[in-house]
Amino acid sequence: MSGERYPPMGGYANPFAALIPSAFSPETDPNIVACFQMADQDGSGLIDDKELQRALSSYDQRFSLRTVRLLMYLFTNTNARKIGPKEFISVFYCLQNWRAIFERFDMDRSGKIDANELREALLSLGFAVSPVVLDLLVSKYDKTGGESKAIEYDNFIECCLTVKGLTEKFKEKDTMYTGNATFTYEAFMLMVLPFLIA
C-alpha cells in the first residue's frame, strides 16, 4: 500500500494519518496527469474524495462516493480521504484492470454480472467465496435491492474492493493460510469497519 503513515499507535497504523503530496514521474501518461490536474482544483497536489469522484465519473461511468472512499482507503491505508499522484495512478490502472475483468465475465453483455459470472470473476482474481457469501454479495451490491440478482460495474468495483480488502486483512492474521485466524475484538473491528463506513 502506498501513502505515508504516522507511527503505529497501540499496534495499529493511525487510520487518520496525513498524506504527503508526491509528483508524477516524467513517463506518466499525459492524460492521467491532465485528469489529476483538472481534479486538483486548489493545486495542493492532493485530491479529495469528491474531486476523485468527479475525475473518475468523467470517463462515462458514475462512481458512488462510498466506492471512491473505499478505493482511497485501500490505496492509502488511511481514512484521510485524499490521494496524491502516486495513488491516483494506482487507482486509474486498477480500475482499467477491473473494467476488463467485468467485460470479460459479463458473458451476455447485459452491463451486469450475475452470481455465476461474479463467482468466475472473483476466482480469476484469486478469491474463492462460498455460495452463501456469493449470494450475500449479489444481494448487497444489486442496485435493485436483489430483484435483478446482478450487479453493475460501479458496484462490482465496490464488491471486489471489499472482498480483496477483507481477504488481505484476514491473511495478515492467517499467516499459515489455514483458513482460520485468531484476533481480538478490537483487531476485528479495525479490520471490518473501514469497509462498512467508507
Description:
This protein is mostly helical and 198 residues long. It has a single domain (30-196), classed as Orthogonal Bundle (Recoverin, domain 1), CATH 1.10.238. It has helices at residues 30-39, 49-57, 65-76, 85-105, 115-124, 131-141, 153-173, 185-196; strands at residues 47-48, 82-83, 112-114, 150-152. α2 (49-57) packs across α3. The longest helix has 21 residues, at 85-105. The two termini are 17 Å apart.
Name a few traits of the molecule.
198 residues, mainly alpha, two-stranded antiparallel sheet, single chain, Recoverin, domain 1, disordered N terminus, EF_hand_dom, calcium, 54% helix, globular
How do the helices and strands line up, and which of them pair or pack?
Blueprint: H1 30-39, E1 47-48, H2 49-57, H3 65-76, E2 82-83, H4 85-105, E3 112-114, H5 115-124, H6 131-141, E4 150-152, H7 153-173, H8 185-196
Antiparallel strand pairs: 1-2, 3-4
Helix pairs in contact: 1-2, 2-3, 3-7, 4-5
